[in-house]
Each structure stands twice: as structure tokens, then as C-alpha cells.
Task: structure prediction
Amino acid sequence: MPSLIKNLEERGFIYQISDPDLDTFLETNNTSCYAGFDPSAGSLTIGHLIPIIGLMHMQNSGNRPIAVVGGATGMIGDPSGKDQERSLLSIETLRQNEAAVKKQLSKFLDFDSKTCGALLVNNYDWTGNYKYLDFLRDIGKHFSVNAMIAKESVKIRLESRDQGISYTEFSYQILQAYDFHHLWKTYGCRIQIGGSDQWGNITAGIDLNRRLGGEQLYGITFPLIMTADGKKIGKSEGNAIWLDENLTKPYVLYQYFIQADDRDVVRFLKLYTFLSMKDINDLEKCLEHEPEKREAQKVLAQEVTKLVHGERGLRAAESATRVLFGDEPIKNFDDDTLKAIFAETPSAWLPRNILTSGITLVELCVVSGFCKSKGEARRLITSGGLYCNNVRITEPDFMITKDQLASKSILILRSGKKRYFLIHLKD
RNA sequence: GGGGAGAUACCCAAGUGGCCAAAGGGAGCAGACUGUAAAUCUGUUGGCAACUGCCUUCGGAGGUUCGAAUCCUCCUCUCCCCA
Result:
């Protein structure tokens, strides 16, 4: 059984470690480990899954995970990785996001373990009512501006002549540093993990704790996860892949991973699943010898979907996939089945009577909003890229009548291989 | 304050009186090949109509001209150099 750090290293989690002794420290100690989550949106994305899974690994090897929702830090805005000042979110939005993020995090961690049950806390609780003057005296005094402006996140903004940085964002690192100190003092938390852009904030916390006479703290950062074609992970056609099933249906999440590039899939298996290294190596061999089976992609998609949406979500995603990639004409379905399968698909609602005398395919594409103009629709159709209920139609003036319905009131358009669109008819 | 350069379609960027709905590249979208991968190749990317037709578009407003993205005037903005 490799050590926790070796294991994380092997799985590609580790970009930087603040102190090489962390490994030996963990051999003989169990501690708590925290990761912070910024409530800047109403849901986390699969990018956030990395620190979440990091916490899970920590818990699996007997350390208490602490997930911190940034109710306080979110009010300030982290300059890390941002090349311009952020606009502040309203307090209501922030509180809503906090609640949503908290709910999501709670799904991944085990709170019932007797020895290392997870904690879910909000840094607003220990920062919100700290008096400004007291904070400056107690905490601010330990920060050297010289060191603060040397941090990468600040330096970039100071060097950029037209962007600059506000005092508010400049102060951010102090708040996050204080979090780390607070969590050490309150829960004995010795480790903070985060994305590589968090390095400066993490080391600020380590320094602060030392100045305040606390124990040695440790930090680990994860690499920025990019796909082989150079995109940041978690974007599908420019849309984020959210963990909230109302924002990103399980099927879409499943598809994102099943379409993973060969060059990425092994790396993702290590990061995003809890499969043993042996299983992953087996899948890698399979990828090498029989890439067309796409066994590795399938397992990856299954594991991640199960982790995020449970068995039920996985089943829904798989049944949708069977219909969508089955190549069979979609015919004689019932409305509810199709609605379930295509729940995430963009849709339009049209009055049923447009089909009574029929409508040309071009026309339908435009009035439903599937295509922006008739020219675009015509191009798509004549180039062979349009499918109606999985059947290719190349004649722009093909008449669509109620005979073309896939179910009682649904018609399915598709452009290319993957872009589906639903037309619902209402009476 | 003085001087110079520039603003073209989603982005970069050619075009400097008609042959310009506007080269080229990127990106996008489709097709072929495939494994729902990658790479490659092909087509396509203002709107309407559809056998060569019409309308809108080259920072904004005017003007010159039979005719302008292209020339002139004013305005707005961006960049550079000198104070």
C-alpha cells in the first residue's frame, strides 16, 4: 500500500508540495485537510471535482476532510488567476450560492465516520464579525506588504498598467491565510489543498500560522487540468459542465467523458475515479491494443457519472446514450420516454396545427429556432448534416407533417452527429 | 499640448475608385474517413429569393462621383513617439 502522498502523486494530483516532509508526517499522523470552494456560482463544476476528490482521498486514508465554503472570501474576490478586477456579487446571490455549494459538497464526503467524519464550514462564520481594527492589529500586523506584492497573483496585476488591483482584492490573501490559521487552531487542520493558482494563498496561511506561533502547516496544489487539445477541462462547446443535474444533465456529463481524447483518458481515470492503479493500467493496455472498443472512456464516463449523480443518474445517461447513438429511427415512442431521454436538449414549443397542412423542413428549422436563417438551414440540409428522428433528410423542401412525429407530440431534429433539438407540439 | 499610425465580417488580417458580400489565416458548422477519439481531406460561414436577382454591411455623420471599404470634411475611439 503506497503512502497517501505517493498515491496522489502517482494519480497526477500533485503539482507543488510546500514541504517534502509532509509524506513522513502523514506516515505517523492523521490530521485534517481543507480545501476552499468559492461560491461565485450557483453550482460547482467538474473542475472543482479535483479538490473534492483530493479531500476524499484524504478521508480514505484516515484524515478528516474539511470543506470550506468561502462565504467571506467570496465577498472580496480572489485575484489569483484573474487578470482584471472582479465585480462583486450581491449579498443575496452570494448567500444563495453558498447554500447550493454546501449542498453539493455534502454529497461527496462521509460525515458519519467516527474517526474522520467530514466537516463542512463557512469562513464567514469566523470572519464576518471580526472587527476591522481588531483584525488589522491581530492579523494584519503579521503581513509584510513587501511579501504580499511579491505574490504572483498580485504582481501580475501591479505590472499591468491599465488593470491594477483594488485594496479589496489585494487583501484577499490575508483572509484566506487567516482561514488556514483558524482551522488549525479550531480543528488542528495541518494541510490545505487547492488548485495551482492557490499556491500564494496557501503559503500565506502557512507563514501566518508560523508567525502566530502555530505548528508547521502544509500545502499541496494540483496541476491545472487541460485536455490534449489545450482546453481547460469542463467546457463542452463553451458551456461549463456543472455538477448540478438541473444545469447539466447526467447524460451530458456522461457524454463529456465518453468523448474524452485517447491522450487524456488515462490521466482522467487516475484523477476522477477511485479505481486501483492496477485496474487503470489494465484499461490503458486495452486502450493501446483495442482503442476502438473505447473501454477506458466507457469506464471513465460510468465512474464519474456514478460519483456525481449516483446509480440512478448513470442509468438515465446510459439509456439516453443507447437511443441517441443507436442509429435506429426514433419512431413510435411515447412522449414521457423521449422527454426523459432528451431532458437536457434544447427545445422549442410550436402549435400543433402547423403540421396539419405540413411545413417544409427549412421552414421548420427556422421557426423553431434550430437554425438562425433559411440560408443556414438550407446549407445544413443540402450538405447532408440534418437528421429528423435520426433519419437523414437532404431535401430542403421536404414536407414535415404529423407522420414525421417521433411520439405523440415530439419531433427530434439533429445537426451533425451530436447536436440534438426537440420540437414539442402543443394544442 | 505637439507629431504620427490606425478602426474591415466571430477573431487576426488583406484590399486604397468599378472585376468587392469583400483575399488569406484562425475559429465555428457540416461532409468523407473513423472508434461518439486524434490527425487528414472537402464544402461552407450577412439576409431574402433562388438558373447568373435584390437588400444590408468595411468606426459614426455628411459630401465628391455615373459608381466608394477605397477620395474629401467633421466627429468618436485606439495605439505609438515627443513635451
Summary: Residues 228-229, 255, 258-265, 290-294, 297, 321, 324-325, 373-376, 378-380, 383-386, 415-419 of chain A lie near RNA strand B (CB under 10 Å from a C1'). Residues 87 and 168 of chain A are 11 Å apart (CA to CA). The mean pLDDT of chain A is 89. Chain A has 19 helices and 15 strands.
